């Protein structure tokens, strides 16, 4: 049973029997002969990938949920479904509140526009009015440390500048529910510290927060619940310490400083 199920208030997010299946025509090692045969017959090799497989959980208000698992476990697919970007193949998702997703850093930015213009686009996409976004523009710029570059086209930005602006846009739009995918990889050590402090602040203010990260140390520090996904299936939902310990045993590693950052 979810930890959040004991809360008297309705959950901020409720996921019921969620499955997401992709169909792809890609082959692992297609041979020239097989390709010619299929081309002659008008056939394509179709594979189904079960990215998320019958997953159910609830997240109560005030919860910061960490999502862990190996590459290909379905973490980012789940986040995109929660954000309304991917439709479920089966099951349902109920969300109470306005979501600000920070999935792949900078997704939705237009490289030909300035940083300032992309702040406006990001804020509008988050459901704010133009007036509300413009009132936050200086705050976003200052948080990202890009005062000197904010009117330059984003194609001139370094990857670190790009990531810092993406993170700043997401966390400064007062979301009800914040979804962050590997955001702590953005920027230098100073910015990472500032990002962690901001996320801790949002965790106390927002209705719920979701964090996908390979940094198990960040999950322990910032989250009060955790789920572990493996090949699209929910393996465990509980306290971060317990879930991370079970996950580390599963992948046969100990709780060293390296694994806390890199799993």
TrEMBL record:
UniProt keywords (A-Z) are: ATP-binding, Nucleotide-binding, Transport
Molecular-function annotations in GO: ABC-type transporter activity; ATP binding; ATP hydrolysis activity
Instruction: Tell me any Pfam family this protein matches.
Output: ABC_tran
| Tagged with keyword S-adenosyl-L-methionine | no
What CDD domains is this protein classified in? ABC_KpsT_Wzt
Tell me if ATP-binding is a UniProt keyword of this record.
Answer: yes
Q: Which residues cross the membrane?
A: none
Judging by the UniProt lineage, the source's domain of life is Bacteria
Provide the Gene Ontology terms for cellular component: membrane
Sequence ranges assigned to domain ABC transporter in this UniProt record = 37-256
Into which family does the record put it?
A: Belongs to the ABC transporter superfamily.
Task: State the protein's name.
Answer: ABC transporter ATP-binding protein
């Amino acid at each position: 049973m979810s930890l959040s199920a004991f809360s008297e208030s309705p959950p901020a997010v409720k996921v019921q029997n969620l499955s997401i299946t992709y169909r792809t025509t890609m082959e692992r090692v297609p041979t020239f002969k097989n390709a010619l045969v299929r081309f002659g017959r008008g056939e394509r090799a179709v594979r189904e990938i079960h990215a998320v497989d019958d997953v159910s959980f609830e997240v109560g208000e005030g919860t910061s949920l960490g999502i862990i698992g190996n590459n290909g476990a379905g973490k980012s697919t789940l986040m995109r479904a929660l954000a309304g970007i991917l439709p479920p193949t089966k099951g349902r998702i109920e969300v109470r509140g306005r979501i600000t997703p920070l999935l792949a850093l900078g997704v939705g930015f237009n490289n030909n526009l300035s940083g300032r213009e992309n702040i406006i686009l990001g804020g509008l996409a988050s459901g704010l009015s133009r007036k509300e976004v413009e009132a936050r523009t200086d705050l976003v710029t200052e948080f990202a440390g890009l005062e000197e570059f904010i009117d330059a086209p984003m194609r001139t930005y370094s990857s670190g500048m790009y990531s810092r602006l993406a993170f700043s846009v997401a966390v400064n739009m007062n979301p009800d529910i914040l979804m962050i995918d590997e955001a702590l990889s953005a920027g230098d050590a100073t910015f990472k510290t500032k990002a962690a402090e901001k996320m801790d602040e949002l965790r106390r203010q927002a209705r719920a927060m979701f964090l996908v990260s390979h940094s198990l140390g960040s999950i322990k520090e910032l989250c009060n619940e955790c789920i572990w996904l493996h090949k699209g299936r929910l393996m465990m939902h509980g306290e971060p310490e317990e879930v991370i310990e079970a996950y580390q045993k599963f992948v046969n590693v100990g709780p060293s400083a390296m694994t806390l950052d890199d799993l």
